[in-house]
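Hey, I'm writing a tutorial for new members on how sequence and structure tokens pair up, and I'd like a real worked example in the thread rather than a made-up one. If someone can provide the structure for the chain below, I'll link this post from the tutorial.
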Amino acid sequence: MSLARRSLMEAAAARFGWRRAYADTTDVDELLTEQTETAYTAAADHAALATAKNAGVLAVQPGVLDVRGRVLADVLYLEGVLTGARNRGLPPELIERLEDAVDHGHEMTVLLAGTIRTTAALHAAS
């Protein structure tokens, strides 16, 4: 959905990171496509900055620490969503998807922590 088609409330919600529920799968698909396009557009800038900035192993560490912190916070929030879904008896398929996402998120935080440890170990070894 283009910004021109959004209501003022939807524009404000997007600006402040608020989300609303979408009952129509077409709307969901449009939103997911928009999120993906936005992320890939920003990725080019991130890659250029990271290439210029990350000249050594310790230079990588702050960015990875930042990502891990944000992922961990999001995964813990998602765990709360999962708990609420379980407590409200929502459909098993939804609960399974949420469980998979939470498990994957926790795995990602472990992998990122390992990456952070590796930066320190490689620096110490050099």
